[in-house]
From TrEMBL:
<keyword id="KW-0479">Metal-binding</keyword>
<dbReference type="Pfam" id="PF01256">
    <property type="entry name" value="Carb_kinase"/>
</dbReference>
<feature type="binding site">
    <location>
        <position position="418"/>
    </location>
    <ligand>
        <name>(6S)-NADPHX</name>
    </ligand>
</feature>
<keyword id="KW-0521">NADP</keyword>
<feature type="domain" description="YjeF C-terminal">
    <location>
        <begin position="216"/>
        <end position="474"/>
    </location>
</feature>
<dbReference type="InterPro" id="IPR036652">
    <property type="entry name" value="YjeF_N_dom_sf"/>
</dbReference>
<dbReference type="GO" id="GO:0052855">
    <property type="term" value="F:ADP-dependent NAD(P)H-hydrate dehydratase activity"/>
</dbReference>
<feature type="binding site">
    <location>
        <position position="305"/>
    </location>
    <ligand>
        <name>(6S)-NADPHX</name>
    </ligand>
</feature>
<dbReference type="GO" id="GO:0016301">
    <property type="term" value="F:kinase activity"/>
</dbReference>
<keyword id="KW-0547">Nucleotide-binding</keyword>
<comment type="similarity">
    <text>In the C-terminal section; belongs to the NnrD/CARKD family.</text>
</comment>
<feature type="binding site">
    <location>
        <position position="119"/>
    </location>
    <ligand>
        <name>K(+)</name>
    </ligand>
</feature>
<dbReference type="InterPro" id="IPR029056">
    <property type="entry name" value="Ribokinase-like"/>
</dbReference>
<feature type="binding site">
    <location>
        <begin position="123"/>
        <end position="129"/>
    </location>
    <ligand>
        <name>(6S)-NADPHX</name>
    </ligand>
</feature>
<dbReference type="InterPro" id="IPR000631">
    <property type="entry name" value="CARKD"/>
</dbReference>
<keyword id="KW-0418">Kinase</keyword>
<feature type="domain" description="YjeF N-terminal">
    <location>
        <begin position="10"/>
        <end position="209"/>
    </location>
</feature>
Length: 484
């Protein structure tokens, strides 16, 4: 698992190391790591042109020291000082000694010919939207040809939430120090961070247990155990699905197919799309009746495409009255938003899987702090909330939140959410704790999307078809060609 940390946690972890000295040692580690990544990205230093945007804090110090290292290897480095009187003195001296040039924002910045731009305007100390002069420099940098590399985090991105107020540095790479900041992997911060490179500056022993994490392929593989000799179709977990309608069987077909393809022990379907499901998936056990007619299951998935009429409301209430894990999606979310006590009163686990508009039906917009928003709704309802998005969040009333790291924008197509529900339902039925089932499902779903997108634009059914291969690759190990 990769820990995702806040600015305060990183600062607290740095404190004892700073106190133990020697002075500047941490910054040297950071700058060396930064210069090393830049060299790798440039291929060579000699003859390249680097412009470092330098604010008045230690983030600017990192950029100056790294710039000095690149200059010492033959790069033509220009440091653009936003606040010349306050630029990190030792870093500035080192850059000058190494042959680097220094300019103000209105001087010869070299941005129009740079091979690489280092963004050292603000890091952990940045607050609110970038000030006008910094924002203008970022616009000029983005218009130039240089590879955009953020120091610690893109200036203008909130380190904890990923919120961007106004403009932020649109990095292609972010070299971050000591720990991955949560703001780099969620919301707008994720869009601005590009590829994140973590430089070890020795904080591992002093960082607290993270309040947010990202699962790796290996973490997920460990939660996807294949069947053993001792298994039978019941022992692998029976999932029950209530979705779709006679007129719109699509959601039911996708959801049932995804559950079958994730953990094909047994899938039961109850609802008015029975004919469509039966035709698509003869392996499922299908009833036109109510959930109570379906036979025994270990977890329910309720909602995709089922409608919001009184009949649907009754079915949702019936399922929530069981003592089984229940996943609520789509129309079921609309219904429980009107009667949240149906969720609050449960003792068995409940998972809600809203996108932003469905989330808002519970009374508050998601806003810029997506992890915080998911946590708040989870605490309010006493349930697991999977908030969909480019980086899907899973939060429970307690324990760490999960920020998903897989997926592709190609997933923004109708029906992919129905597939996610089916995958998650199968993992719930298999007995995974609710938050882990949801987070594992989001990871698998994203990997299936990446695999499907290799063949061009995808439709939701492609995910179902790719699930067996996705699961096989994950189980074989992360070196099996499903890179980030
Ligand atoms: N501590 C350590 O040992 C290590 C620290 N490390 C590095 O230090 C970084 C933290 O440095 P930091 O604390 O000096 O703050 P930093 O990110 O440079 O920002 C402060 C500057 O930004 C300015 N500013 C603020 N908001 C702004 C805005 N909206 N728009 C424009 N400007 C704005 C603010 O201006 P002021 O308010 O003072 O006028 C001030 O000048 C950290 O991210 C990592 O890179 C590493 O070397 C590892 C070891
Ligand atoms: N830009 C994007 N990048 C990555 N994943 C996305 C993006 N947009 C949507 N997704 C994913 O696609 C799925 C869409 O689900 P949902 O909105 O419920 O669709 P539907 O209701 O049509 O099934 C979610 O898993 C979401 O995380
Ligand atoms: K920065």
């Amino acid at each position: 698992m990769i820990g995702l940390h806040t600015a305060d946690e990183v600062r607290a972890a740095e404190a004892p190391l700073l106190a133990a000295g020697p002075e500047g040692a941490l910054m040297q580690r950071a700058a060396t790591g930064l210069a090393t990544v830049c060299l790798r990205l440039l291929g060579r230093a000699h003859g390249t042109r680097v412009t470092a945007l330098v604010g008045a804090g230690d983030n600017g110090g990192d950029a100056l020291f790294a710039g000095a290292q690149l200059a010492a290897r033959g790069a033509r480095v220009t440091a653009v000082l936003l606040d010349p009187d306050r630029a990190h003195p030792a870093g500035l001296a080192r850059l000058r000694r190494a042959g680097g040039r220094v300019a103000g924002p209105d001087g010869p910045t070299g941005l129009d010919r740079a091979d690489l731009v280092l963004d050292g305007i603000t890091g952990l100390g940045g607050r609110g939207g970038l000030r006008p002069e910094a924002a203008a420099l970022v616009v000029r940098a983005a218009a130039g040809p240089g590879l955009m590399v953020a120091v610690d985090l893109p200036s203008g991105v909130d380190p904890d939430t990923g919120a961007v107020a106004g403009r932020a540095f649109p990095a292609q790479h972010t070299v971050t120090f000591g720990a991955v900041k949560a703001g780099l992997v969620v919301g707008e911060g994720r869009q601005h961070a590009g590829q994140v490179h973590l430089v070890d500056i020795g904080l591992a022993g002093t960082l607290p247990r993270p309040r947010a994490v990202r699962l790796t392929d290996d973490d997920v593989a460990a939660r996807l155990e294949p069947p053993t000799d001792a298994d039978d179709k019941y022992s692998r977990g029976v999932v029950g699905i209530v979705a779709g309608s006679a007129t719109y069987p699509g959601a039911a077909v996708l959801c049932t197919g995804a559950a079958l393809r994730t953990r094909p022990g047994l899938v039961r379907y109850a609802g008015t799309a029975a004919a469509g499901v039966r035709a698509a998936w003869p392996e499922a056990i299908v009833t036109e009746g109510r959930p109570s007619d379906a036979g025994r299951v270990q977890a329910w998935v309720v909602g995709p495409g089922m409608g919001t009429d009184d009949g649907a409301a009754d079915v949702v209430a019936e399922v929530l009255a069981t003592d089984l894990p229940v996943l609520l999606d789509a129309d079921a979310l609309t219904l429980v938003a009107r009667r949240p006590d149906l969720v609050r009163d449960r003792t068995a686990p409940t998972v809600l899987t809203p996108h932003d508009r469905e989330f808002a039906r519970f009374g508050q917009d998601v806003g810029a702090d997506r992890i915080g928003a998911a946590r708040r709704l989870a605490a309010d309802l006493g349930a697991v909330v999977l908030l969909k998005g480019a980086a899907t969040i899973v939060a429970a009333p307690d324990g760490p939140a999960f920020v998903n790291g897989t997926g592709t924008p190609e997933l923004a197509t109708a029906g992919t959410g129905d597939v996610l529900s089916g995958i998650a339902g199968a993992l719930l039925a298999a007995g995974l704790p609710a938050a882990e089932a949801a987070a594992t499902a989001a990871h698998v779903h994203g990997r299936a999307g990446q695999l499907a997108a290799e063949g061009g634009p995808l439709i939701a059914g492609d995910l179902v078809r790719r699930l067996p291969r996705t699961l096989a690759r994950l189980r074989r190990g992360s070196g099996a060609g499903l890179g980030d």
